[in-house]
Amino acid sequence: xxxPILIILFCxxxxxxxxxxxxxxxxxEPGIGNVEDLxxxxxxWSGTGLGGNCxxxxxxxxxxxxxxxxxxxxxxxxxFSEFMNLIQDGETFxxxxxxxxxDLSGWEEKEEWTIFPLVEVEENTIWFHGFTMKRSGxxxxxxxxxxxxxxxxxxxxxxxxxxx
Length: 164
Hints:
The protein has one helix spanning about 5-15; strands spanning about 45-50, 50-60, 65-75, 75-90, 90-100, 115-120, 125-130, 130-135, 140-150, 150-160. By secondary structure, the chain is mostly beta strands. It has a ten-stranded antiparallel beta barrel with strand order 1-2-3-4-5-6-7-8-9-10. Strand 2 (about 50-60) and strand 3 (about 65-75) form a beta hairpin. It is globular.
């Protein structure tokens, strides 16, 4: 089950977008960065997005990889979750993830992943192609570009760092 378009439209109308996303131009090489420098992402983040509630956790980097999880629920019901990896690849890194329904059936085929190549890294900000993570103190804003039915929209997730 994909995220219903009505949830996305509601979110776009109810929550203005302040962050932006960037893109790699066709044929452009990905940005330079090191997963080992992303300790500011590590932790448990909780907040809102897509008209519901979200949690995201990130573990410290080991061997050029950071592992994270995401869950989205609405009205007390789990809608979907994600398994995420930030993976070092030479002088760049990328975000690679899979989506799952509440019964753990996958959205992507077995050998397919959703991948966001790196555009640029700034202090406390990661710009991926169509996706941005920006931290300020104990807050983090994620901006995501979603394309559905030929239309592209930007949605925002607003997190606060929590303790488990």
